[in-house]
Amino acid sequence: MHKGWMRWWCMALLLSVLGCAGQPVPAPEPAPAPVSVPEPPPVPAPAPQPIALPRVAIVVSADIPAYTDIASRLEHSLGKRAARYPLDSHTREALQQSGADQMVAIGLEAALLAQSMPRGRDVVFCQVFNYMDHGLLGAGSRGVGMLPSYDKTFATWRVLAPELRQVAVFTGPGLETLLSPAVAAAERHGINLVHRSISSDKEFLYQYKRMSARLDGLWLLPDNRVLSRNTIQELMSFSLRNGKQVAVFSEQLLRIGGLFSATSDPDEVAAKVLQSLADSHVSGTSDSSGLLFLEQAELHVNPVIAQRLGLTIPESLRPHVAD
């Protein structure tokens, strides 16, 4: 009885163990998928603040085309940033109240007014011949040259008068630096340009007449220190009587005997002024050597004087014949 019970218990235990071994082992539960946390959106960069462009006061010495043509072009380019001021007894006060950051002075009188005012705004002057005598270049003051391209002036003269060799130019003192490039430009075109510094209009007439025998022509420049209306009339009359060619600085002087005129182009002068204003605004300073020279020239040829001097106007200059 006991042995049978033991046998039955062992068999039951064995079946139980075998039965457990046959059950499938449950698969491990999959690991939970990682949770994707979205990155925060990038913070937009702050919008650039618009750069405030400087306001410009344009001061005009006189109501003449040589000045007003440039002023009009500047106003057109600068738009609402620009305001024009005629030169009168109220100009100084108006400029002080204008709040302008920069000033353009057109003509000598406007440039002298700008020079006399308290510093604090950059100045660009133009249409000033004798800027050196007045010390207009310096800290806070730049300029645009008045004379048209030297190279184009002498290239034109040599094409018009192939036999031209000796030319004189007379000015008041202190312009050697200004005219040194002109001497070099003339030489490149086979012309010997002689510069003489003089002190008065009477000395101008005396020196020119004394040298005229060895000269082919005279380059007349707008230096009011040594020129007067009467002096110009006498210079032109003497030149015509003696067969001397005269290159002049205004179209009006063609009517009294100039062979050709070379003048500045208002568009180029205005463009150079704008360039100088922009350079000054960007750099925050004004270079004491900041004079921009002109690279173009407006040309007009007097056909009557050319014929009188025995010169043939070439086809290249026909478009420049004055009416």
In words, what does this structure look like?
By secondary structure, this protein is an alpha/beta fold. The chain contains ten helices and twelve strands. A six-stranded parallel beta sheet has the order 2-1-3-4-5-11, with helices on both faces. It has a six-stranded mixed beta sheet with strand order 7-6-8-9-10-12, with helices on both faces. Helix 2 (65-78) packs across helix 9, helix 5 crosses helix 6 (176-188) and helix 7 (201-211) packs parallel to helix 8. It starts with a helix and ends in a 15-residue tail after the last helix.
Counted by DSSP, the helix tally is: 10
On the 0 to 100 scale, the average pLDDT is 87
Q: Separation of termini?
A: 154 Å
Number of E-type strands: 12
Task: Please indicate the percent range of residues in DSSP E strands (runs of 2 or more).
Answer: 15-25%
What structural class is derived from the secondary structure elements? alpha/beta
Could you spell the SSE succession in H and E letters?
HEHEHEHEEHEHEHEHEEHEEH
- What is the radius of gyration computed over CA atoms, rounded to a whole number of angstroms? 42 Å
Largest sheet: 6 strands, parallel
Q: Uncertain segments of ≥5 residues (pLDDT<50)?
A: 8-25, 284-288
Strand order of the largest sheet: 2-1-3-4-5-11
Shape: elongated
What percent of the residues sit in helical stretches (DSSP H or I)?
25-40%
